[in-house]
Amino acid sequence: MAHAAAKPPALDVSPTHIVATLFYKTDSLHFFPHPDASPHSPTDRLPSASLQSLKDGAAPTDKIEDYPLEPPTPGPNPLDHLYGSYISQSCLTDFFVTLTDMIPGLMEDTIVSRRLECTKLCRVVEVTFPLPSTSAITLETLRRNEAISRFEREWNVEAVFQADTVYRRYKRLAVFDMDSTLIQQEVIDEIATLIGVEDQVSAITAAAMNGELDFEASLRKRCALLKGVPSTVWETLKPRITLNEGVLALIKALKKLGFKTAVLSGGFTPLTGWMGKELGMDYAFANHLVLSEDGQELTGELTGDIVHAQRKKQHVLDIAEKEGLLLDQVVVVGDGANDLPMMSIAGLGVAFHAKPKVQMQAPARLNSKSMLDILYLLGISKEEQEVLLR
Predict the structure, then answer these.
(1) What is the pTM for the complete model shown?
(2) Based on the structure, what is the number of domains in the chain?
């Protein structure tokens, strides 16, 4: 089903202004030189702390083969511990200079900054700047620009770029993946541990990652391992499920703002439906496992449509159409490659603590400690968030 909002508009909608939201990464301070921060030969041994600094998406990987572009050129050591472990004025000035150097015609006096979180020291700052009509710069080139990556590494920040349109602040639908996004666990791994088939599941996962199996084939193979498992397994699993930090607060704030919410999972309906109800979600979609005739055991088979990447994308289109919303009014949050298609059609698609390759391909990436930080991407300040959470 085609969504009307997905059709390209007849008019040129190239953004005239861009918003960059800068997050200081307080939970990953690097007191050692970044591995790419000084010249070294391929045989040099890097301190483990330096490699650890890359773990959560800075640059955003320590594996050269994961870079879709050329690796960053060597540069100076991180500057945040010299000028302040926060978004300092020196950091902002350097960002302004970086922008004016890379965007011909951009004047520094046209760049405006707004502090979104400054309880003591600034952790989140919003920067708005115009794109000159003659500029060839796009959101995609900004996100993948080597100078921006260098700035992020030097100042220990993460920059998220969006078009500054009326719909940036006025989203109305939030869609989430479940495993490793809303919750900390991967449900299939939890089941595998519970019934003692971790090795078999790991082998299937490896085959899928090597391209030997597609998502649907690997899912069916995993499900086959569940044959004979008591249907009460879901009740056993529920106490083990842990929400990611900030999820409850984020959903509460979104509800206060009038959002519709949805969870789309490549997992299974018993847990996805339960989690959706626990969080007060308006929609929940996942895969249906077949039960034995007496309802006591899982048969290891699936029924109905498989919730793979394209199905997730279609669910987003269908929900938006049902709610009468434009795709520009949709936020999608996920962590896996099968979330990329639905991220790509949303007004804001966020890879939250995702794998390096997913972070490089996603419209936006966020590796902060709390999912509540997504509100900053909507331009909602810390003070405004506190009002929403009362």
Answers:
(1) 0.82
(2) 2
